[in-house]
Design brief:
This protein has about 475 residues and is α+β, with helices and mostly antiparallel strands. About 25% of the residues lie in helices and about 30% in strands. The protein folds into 3 domains: about 120 residues, Galactose-binding domain-like (Jelly Rolls, Sandwich); about 50 residues, no CATH class; about 270 residues, Vaccinia Virus protein VP39 (Rossmann fold, 3-Layer(aba) Sandwich), CATH 3.40.50.150. It has a 7-stranded mixed β-sheet, with helices on both faces. Helix 1 runs antiparallel to helix 2, helix 3 packs antiparallel against helix 4 and helix 3 runs antiparallel to helix 5. The chain is globular, with a radius of gyration of 24 Å. It starts with 7 loop residues before the first strand and ends in a 10-residue tail after the last strand.
Length: about 475
C-alpha cells in the first residue's frame, strides 16, 4: 500500500488534503475538464520482459460532481492509460486504471459538470505480465467463454498458481497467450447448473423447430437470414439467456410476471416459462405472415401469452398490457432509428415499482469492431443491405457502449443498475481458430472488448434522478 502524500496542485481553485488513513481529499476547479492535482506513485520492482503494463488500484468516492483520472509518465503529460470518469452517487468503490509500464503519475481533473469533490484511498501498484495458459486452457476455457474479466482471470490465476507453486493474483495478469488451436468449444461444460440446464433444454427445443421457420417471408437485408444462421443464433444466445436469469436472481427475482418486448423465436420466453414465470411476449408476428408460426405455437403450448402485432397497432396493444414484475427487451434497442428515449420510457412504464427492467445489445466497443476500425473498415451493417432495403430499414441503426446503456437506464428512473459484458459470437463455432483464440484471450483480460452488453436495474419511476451503481 502507498499513501497519497506528495502532490502537485495545478490550479488555484483546486486542492489536495492528505488524510490520516493514507488517503486524500481532492477538490477540482469549477471549469469542466480543468486539471486539478497530480499524484505521483512508485514503480513496482518486478518489471521484466514479460511486463505489459501497470495496474493502479485505489479506493475512490466522488462526493459531488464528477472527476476524470488517468496516468502519465514522469516527463510527459500525454495520457498512458484510458481516462476513468466517475460521478457522484456510486459510493466508495475500488477502481483500477491500467497503464503503460513507464507510468508514474495520476492526473485528476474535473468532469463535464465542473467543480467536484472526491476522496481517494490507499493505492496499490501491480506489474501486469503476459502468461502462457496453453497447459491449462482445457480447464479454464468454459469460464473464459462464460465470464470474461474478473471471473475469468480469477480462474486463470488459480490454475496457474497450482502449477507455478506461488499465489498469482488476477490483477497481475495483463495478457494471455495460448499455443494451441483449433480448440473445441465445450458446450457440454458451459452451463451445467439448474439454470443452465433449463436454458440448454429450451435451446434444443427451439432449434428442433427451425424447419418451421419460413425465411422466404423475411427480408434478408434487414438481417433476417436463413435457418442455418438462426440455428447458430439460438445456440449462441444461450449465454444471453443465462446472463439474464443470473441477473434476475441477483435482484432476488425467481418468480412473478414477465413482459418481453421483441421476442422473435422465444429464446428468453420459453426458459422463463419453464422456470415458473408468468410470461407475456409481444412482437410483430402478424407482419411476418406466418414465418414464426411454429415458434408462437410452441410458446403458447408452454403457457406463454403471445400478443401478435404489426406497425399499425403495436403501440396500442403494448399500452394495454399493464405492469409486470420484469420487463425485458433483448437485442431491440439497436434497431431503433431515432432516439431510444420513448422506447425506454414505455418499457419502464410497464414495470411495477421496484421491478426490474433489463436490456441487452451489441457492444459498439467490441474487440472485432476495434479491429475493423483499426483496419479502416466500417463497423456498421453492409452498405448494400441498407442502401437497397425496403423502407423502413430494420437493421442496426446504432449500437451502444456499456456506459451509454447505464446512463440511459438511469434517465428513465432505474437504480442499482447492473452491467454484464460477455461474448456470444464465439459460441457459433464448433472449434475456435487461432484468430478466435486470440480474441477470446483479449476479451478475457479486458471485458470491455466483449461483444454484448446486458444492463438491468430496479425501476422507481421516470425522472427519479437515480444514479447507476
Amino acid at each position: 500500500m502507498v499513501a497519497w502524500t506528495a502532490a502537485e496542485t495545478l490550479s488555484a481553485d483546486a486542492g489536495m488534503v492528505p488524510r490520516s488513513d493514507g488517503g486524500c481529499d481532492v477538490t477540482t476547479p469549477a471549469v469542466p475538464w480543468s486539471y486539478a492535482v497530480v499524484l505521483p506513485f512508485r514503480h513496482p520492482e518486478t518489471l521484466d520482459a514479460e511486463t505489459v503494463g501497470l495496474r493502479v488500484q485505489f479506493e475512490l468516492e466522488v462526493i459531488s460532481g464528477s472527476i476524470g483520472v488517468f496516468a502519465t509518465g514522469a516527463t510527459t503529460d500525454a495520457p498512458l492509460s484510458r481516462e476513468l470518469v466517475q460521478q457522484a452517487g456510486v459510493g466508495r468503490t475500488t477502481v483500477s486504471i491500467d497503464a503503460a509500464s513507464e507510468s508514474s503519475r495520476l492526473w485528476i481533473r474535473s468532469g463535464p459538470n465542473g467543480a467536484a469533490r472526491a476522496t481517494l484511498g490507499h493505492v496499490r501498484i501491480f506489474s501486469r505480465r503476459r502468461f502462457d495458459i496453453t497447459a491449462v486452457i482445457d480447464e479454464v476455457l468454459p469460464v473464459l467463454l462464460r465470464a470474461p474479466g474478473r471471473v475469468a482471470l480469477a480462474a486463470v490465476a488459480s490454475a496457474l498458481s497450482e502449477r507455478m507453486g506461488y499465489s498469482l493474483l488476477p490483477d497481475e495478469i495483463g495478457a494471455l497467450e495460448c499455443r494451441r488451436a483449433p480448440i473445441r468449444v465445450p458446450f457440454d461444460r458451459l452451463f451445467t447448473d439448474q439454470l443452465g440446464r433449463v436454458v440448454m433444454d429450451s435451446t434444443e427445443t427451439l432449434i428442433s423447430l427451425m424447419p418451421t421457420y419460413i425465411a422466404s417471408k423475411m427480408d434478408p437485408r434487414d438481417g433476417y437470414l436463413g435457418q442455418d444462421h438462426y440455428a447458430r443464433y439460438l445456440r449462441q444466445s444461450t449465454i444471453r439467456v443465462n446472463y439474464l436469469l443470473e441477473q434476475l436472481r441477483a435482484f432476488g427475482v425467481e418468480k412473478g410476471s414477465v413482459l418481453e418486448v421483441g421476442s422473435l423465436f422465444g429464446q428468453f420466453a420459453l426458459p422463463l416459462r419453464q422456470l415458473g414465470f408468468d410470461v407475456t411476449v409481444i412482437d410483430r408476428y402478424r407482419a411476418y405472415e406466418g414465418a414464426f408460426d411454429g415458434y408462437t405455437e410452441c410458446m403458447r403450448a408452454a403457457g406463454v401469452r403471445v400478443v401478435e402485432t404489426d406497425r399499425t397497432d403495436e403501440g396500442a396493444l403494448l399500452g394495454a398490457l399493464g405492469q409486470f414484475d420484469v420487463v425485458i427487451c433483448m437485442a431491440v434497442i439497436e434497431h431503433v432509428p431515432h432516439t431510444p428515449r420513448e422506447l425506454l420510457r414505455t418499457l419502464a412504464s410497464h414495470v411495477v415499482p421496484g421491478g426490474v427492467l433489463a436490456l441487452d445489445t451489441p457492444n459498439i466497443a467490441s474487440y472485432w469492431n476495434r479491429k475493423r476500425l483499426a483496419a479502416g473498415l466500417s463497423i456498421h451493417q453492409q452498405i448494400d443491405s441498407q442502401f437497397f432495403c425496403a423502407l423502413p430499414y430494420e437493421g442496426h441503426h446504432r449500437e451502444y457502449t456499456a456506459a451509454e446503456m447505464q446512463w440511459m437506464l438511469a434517465q428513465v428512473g432505474c437504480r442499482r443498475i447492473s452491467t454484464g459484458l460477455f461474448d456470444y459470437n464465439l459460441l457459433q463455432f464448433e472449434e475456435l481458430s487461432r484468430e478466435h483464440v486470440e480474441a477470446l484471450l483479449a476479451i478475457s483480460v479486458d471485458a470491455t472488448l466483449a461483444d454484448t452488453v446486458l444492463v438491468a436495474g430496479l425501476v422507481d419511476g421516470p425522472d427519479s434522478g437515480a444514479a447507476s451503481q
